[in-house]
Amino acid sequence: MLHATVVDDKQHMVTNLDKSAFTVLEDGKPQTITSFRHEDIPVALGIVIDNSGSMREKRDRVNQAALNLVRASNKDDQVFIVNFNDEYYLDQDYTSDIKKLQEGLEKVEARGGTALYDALVASADHLKKSAKLQKKVLLVVTDGEDNASRESLEQAVHRLSEENGPTSPCLTDYGGAYRRNRLLA
């Protein structure tokens, strides 16, 4: 089974494609597409939120946006919440219960530095080892660059790729100076 999500050049989802718009190759050879469906499949989603001191004034809006995302998503999605500053905290393990997710998001004591790379690696590891759903996503919200991780950017990218295959991080720079190209370089 192969799942695909298609976006246009402005990163908007394209939902009106049919089977003829796709080509599947295996070892460079075209394969016959035997089944084709448009569906919203459930995902295992890790919401990883910067809880450093600089996020103190932003957390209410970030929490509300995270809850809105979950409410608008597939009801069978399984979501976990990680808050991080100098350390990584799994504040809510997999659930689809909005109340539990809200409680996990509200465990906020914004302080300390930003151990972004450590949080990414730990969250990806949790996703890999514990997710019961095939499709896996990490959403990371931060307003600054890493200043507290034991892992370097290169080590984090290597570990993510090694353990989870090609990695396409979804990073939200919430009012900070984080440069997307630094993470993807």
How does the SSE layout of this entry go?
Elements: E1 24-26, E2 29-31, E3 43-50, H1 59-72, E4 78-84, E5 88-95, H2 98-105, H3 116-130, E6 135-142, H4 153-164, E7 170-173, H5 180-184
Parallel strand pairs: 3-4, 3-6, 6-7
Antiparallel strand pairs: 1-2, 4-5
Helix pairs in contact: 1-2, 3-4
Task: Give the low-pLDDT segments.
Answer: 177-185
Structure annotation, total helices: 5
CATH homologous superfamily designation:
von Willebrand factor, type A domain
Number of domains: 1
Termini gap: 30 Å
In CATH, the architecture is 3-Layer(aba) Sandwich
CATH topology: Rossmann fold
Describe the structure.
The chain has 185 residues and is of the alpha/beta class. The protein has one domain: Rossmann fold (3-Layer(aba) Sandwich). It has five helices and seven strands, in the order βββαββααβαβα. A five-stranded mixed beta sheet has the order 5-4-3-6-7, with helices on both faces. Strand 3, helix 1 and strand 4 form a beta-alpha-beta unit. Helix 1 packs antiparallel against helix 2 and helix 3 runs parallel beside helix 4. It is globular. 28% of the residues are buried.
